[in-house]
Amino acid sequence: MIICFWNVNKNKSLDNLILELVQENKIDILALAEYDNDTEQLCKLLDQRETRYKPLQCIGCDKIKGIYNSKYTQKPLKATSRYIISTFSTVYSKLLLGAIHGPAMPRKSDDDRRQYYSIYIHDIEQAESESGINNTILIGDFNSSPFDGSIVRAGAIHAIPHKEEASKNSRIVDGHNYKTFYNPTWKLLALDKPPYGTYYYNNSNYENYYWYLFDQVIVRPGLINSFQEDSLRIITEINDKSLLKNDYSPDIAYSDHLPIIFEIQEEKL
Questions:
Q1: In this predicted model, what pLDDT tens digit does every residue of 119-165 receive, in sequence order?
Q2: Which of 51, 152, 165, 248 has the most CB atoms around its CB within 10 Å?
Q3: Residue 91's domain spans which residues?
Q4: How many domains does the structure of the chain reveal?
Q5: CB-based contact 36:58 (threshold 8 Å)
Q6: Per-residue pLDDT tens for 229-269?
Q7: How far apart are CA 125 and CA 133, in angstroms?
Q8: What CATH number is given to the structural domain containing 240?
Q9: Measured between alpha carbons, how far is 69 from 201 in angstroms, rounded to an integer?
Q10: Structural contact between residues 138 and 217, judged by C-beta atoms closer than 8 angstroms
């Protein structure tokens, strides 16, 4: 199963490029943030290219839309204005997917997002309990870096960059047991050539990171063996069209964010 996420920044002229993205990369689930066009129309256009997709069921969510390969079955479990939680039935097993567009800076601080993500994770854990599925994937534009407290801290998302530690499944802090996630997106911070993230912002502040990795994939420890580490990448080109400017930052003619993509090996679930 190949999954992709892209914040398209309300660009209404991207449909043909999105179709090329899906077909070129054989994407099974595509989640989009800030997409204002009609996903039904996207699916009809893919049907004309002899590939069958369905719109993601996102009723109640303003920030996330998308499409998925019709060989899978989606069952929506929860939707808020910023995220959806669904199960997807596969040939081998079932996955639980939470797609999110988190609150942005500077309107919300990392402390604010930490509180927001505690609610998000509560809903994720409730969905896991009700569905009996713990093969959980979180994708989206978190508007936080992998090292921010809203991503790392127990009580928020609690996403750990080390497989060995995440594989312990939980951690006790002050007598409370917190389930863990593994965050493979950290590896994208160590790339030896640009882009060094999915979002670029050069400010005049004393503290300036330039590149930000707001767009992430985070998984439960049970998916570590089926998660294809080498497949996780930032997409910089679609059908020979570069998504980058000459300075390697995202070309806002397309979007101010770059897509991320990865693969789950279903037979290892």
A1: 999 999 999 999 999 999 999 999 999 999 999 999 999 999 999 99
A2: 152
A3: 2-268
A4: 1
A5: no
A6: 999 999 999 999 999 999 999 999 999 999 999 999 998 88
A7: 10
A8: 3.60.10.10
A9: 34
A10: yes
